[in-house]
Specification:
mainly alpha; 30 helices; 641 residues
């Protein structure tokens, strides 16, 4: 049940977007999916709260249940015939049995597998082959052919090493060696990416599902609308703020786009925003949700593991860059509203802040408790467990948000369904990571990046950004981050970029496929709601999301991630905000009024000087910006805000 504020003019939250074609399940088949999904969620909640199993047990059970759900829900081909074909369904049920068998084999034979390390039996290789093929097929169905082919490429690379050109060659590995690496160790399918998906990521996806089912999502949208609706361009600012609220707990750009966009995009269009601009604002704002603590995208949990850093530290250093990103989006929105003369809405058309908070304050409790447990140095898994439990308990405080037993089971099922794509991506990424570790291609790729960039950090970052854009055309952002950070991350650290900063740069750039044509998934989702051209919406969101490209460069050259002396950090933050303000005004051609050519050129120079890693340049940039403000400002300009 979703909470519905009587003053809220928008629709209730829609279901999350479908990544690919899905079967319409009824009868016993729907019951089987519910049983598997609820069983998976209960297993994950129990292990989150009362202790995980050994790595192989935890990860193999998680993967087996995720693969089973994927094979039932996603048919092998698109189209109504494939969804209803009984023969294909029968074959898929065989795949489900095989998927469950891969976990059972490890659990039953675990002691013997430990004893015969390196002296594997034929049955070990058979189940390894089955597990590998199942992961590849599930990836093809849920994510697409691109990631599947990338994984196959790395498998072929591991086998064909001796016959490759010299700069790519290696000793080569047998099929049995490859299979044992993938299935019988924690360096393949059951490696670190799957480990994170089977612990931290799932519990936070479940947290988001509970918020959605109890009405927490509507509360955050109502609150944003109440706070910003009266401002100039109010619905657009609502979109930014609501996406920040929702994104900080959902961690999914596309889901964020459709949930908040179903309400904010029609409102933006109503006050005069062009359809493609309205969609672009929502897509750019929603993309920032994966960057906003306390719950960032799944890649943030992986980053904590890869860098051997606490998740608390990750969210501490990520907070200011994320706020800077949203500041830049808000500035784009504000300047656009001023240019077009859009006014705010009347108070009578808006939900009251006091009433909104009164009706939904209990949804703030789980967020506060989550942050409190993280600050108290509890593991993210335990903090997530507490957040899920407190969300359910908090929902019981109000009749409108209280879940019946049936709805509680629905929330558990929704959490498992929402985790399928991320977990399958992580299992497939485990194949890639395993082959990278086995062959050493990561070091070669890193050396290639260093060589092509000539040791220049900016050029290396641009190459990584280009690579992330290409990968993002076919991979989810989590998978794109994993591949890039394994292959290109070491190149940045070799150039002197701190480890966490290098990972954060790659993590930020892995988000760019959401808003960058030719494949801009969040923009395309927003275009569908706005009734706009997908490519027009994509290019507009690419412009609005420019902070996504600039802020990582600041991370490389300046202590934006709190990794420097306090005065230098403070100067970096202040100059960063001023520079982004000048940059958005430069692109929009508007500050307090339309800018003249000389003013616009001065704004461009000012933002460059403010970003430059030297305080004399920063001072010059601030003076230049002040001069433009003086010449552009007119009496009464404050009323425009």
């Amino acid at each position: 049940m979703t909470q519905k504020n009587s003053n809220h003019p928008g629709p209730e939250l829609p279901p999350l977007p479908e990544i690919s074609s899905k079967r319409q399940l009824t009868g016993w088949l729907a019951g089987l999916v519910s049983l598997l999904a609820i069983g998976l969620s209960v297993f994950q909640v129990y292990t989150a709260g009362f202790g995980t199993l050994t790595a192989m047990f935890q990860r193999s059970i998680h993967v087996a249940l995720i693969l089973s759900l994927a094979f039932i829900i996603h048919p092998p081909a698109a189209g109504p015939r494939a969804k209803k074909n009984r023969l294909l369904l029968g074959l898929d049920l065989v795949l489900v049995v095989l998927a469950l068998g891969t976990a059972v084999y490890i659990i039953v034979n675990f002691d013997q597998l430990v004893e015969r390390q390196g002296d594997w039996l034929t049955s070990d290789y058979v189940f390894a082959g089955i597990a590998t093929l199942l992961v590849l097929e599930a990836t093809r169905r849920t994510i697409g052919l691109v990631m599947t082919l990338i994984a196959v490429f790395f498998l072929a690379y591991a086998y064909c090493g001796p016959w490759l050109p010299e700069f790519m060659s290696h000793r080569g590995y047998s099929v049995t060696r490859i299979l044992s690496q993938l299935y019988l160790t924690t360096e393949g399918i059951y490696g670190l990416p799957t480990g994170v998906a089977a612990t931290f990521v799932f519990i936070f996806i479940l947290f988001g599902a509970f918020l959605e089912k109890t009405g927490g999502g509507n509360f955050f949208i109502d609150l944003a609308y109440a706070l910003t609706g009266r401002m100039r361009g109010g619905p657009a600012k609502t979109a930014v703020l609501a996406s920040g609220f929702m994104g900080s707990v959902s961690g999914s750009a596309i889901a964020n786009t459709v949930t908040t966009g179903s309400f904010t995009i029609p409102m933006m269009k109503k006050i005069g925003y062009k359809p493609h601009v309205a969609g672009a604002i929502e897509a750019a704002a929603s993309t920032g949700g994966q960057l906003m603590p306390p719950i960032m995208g799944a890649g943030a949990f992986l980053m904590a593991e890869f860098t051997n850093t606490s998740y608390l530290h990750i969210i501490k250093v990520a907070a200011i860059p994320a706020i800077m990103y949203y500041f830049s989006v808000i500035m784009f929105v504000h300047f656009e509203a001023c240019k077009e003369g859009f006014e705010g809405q009347a108070a009578s058309q808006l939900p009251a802040v006091r009433e909104t908070v009164k009706n939904g304050f209990h949804f703030l409790l789980p967020i506060a408790i989550l942050v409190g447990f993280l600050l108290a140095n509890f593991s993210p898994m335990m903090a997530g467990f507490i957040a899920v439990v407190t969300t359910y308990l908090a929902s019981c405080l109000r009749r409108a948000s209280r879940l019946s037993f049936r709805q509680l089971l629905g929330a558990l099922e929704l959490g498992a369904r929402n985790a399928i794509v991320v977990s399958v991506a992580c299992a497939c990424a485990g194949i890639i990571v395993g082959m990278v570790g086995l062959t050493g291609i990561g070091l070669k790729f890193s050396s290639l990046v260093v060589s092509l960039s000539g040791g220049i950090k900016l050029l290396a970052i641009m190459l990584i950004g280009l690579a992330s854009l290409v990968l993002g055309m076919g991979l989810p952002v989590t998978a794109s981050y994993i591949v890039l950070v394994i292959l290109a991350g070491p190149a940045l650290t070799d150039m002197g970029v701190p480890l966490v900063a290098a990972h954060m740069i790659v993590f930020w750039y892995s988000q760019d496929a959401n808003v960058t044509p030719p494949v801009a998934l969040a923009s395309f989702a927003a275009a569908g709601i706005a009734g706009a051209s997908p490519m027009e919406c994509g290019f507009a969101s690419w412009k609005i999301a420019k902070g996504l490209y600039i802020i990582p460069i600041l991370m490389a050259y300046r202590p934006l991630l709190l990794n420097g002396p306090p005065l230098e950090v403070a100067n970096t933050i202040a100059c960063g905000f001023l520079g982004l303000w000048a940059f958005t005004a430069f692109l929009e051609g508007y500050l307090f009024n339309f800018t003249r050519l000389a003013e616009r050129a001065a704004l461009g120079l000012a933002c460059l000087l403010l970003f430059w890693p030297a305080w004399p340049a920063n001072l010059a940039g601030a003076v230049l910006l002040a001069a433009v403000i003086f010449t552009n400002r007119k009496p009464g300009w404050a009323a425009a805000g």
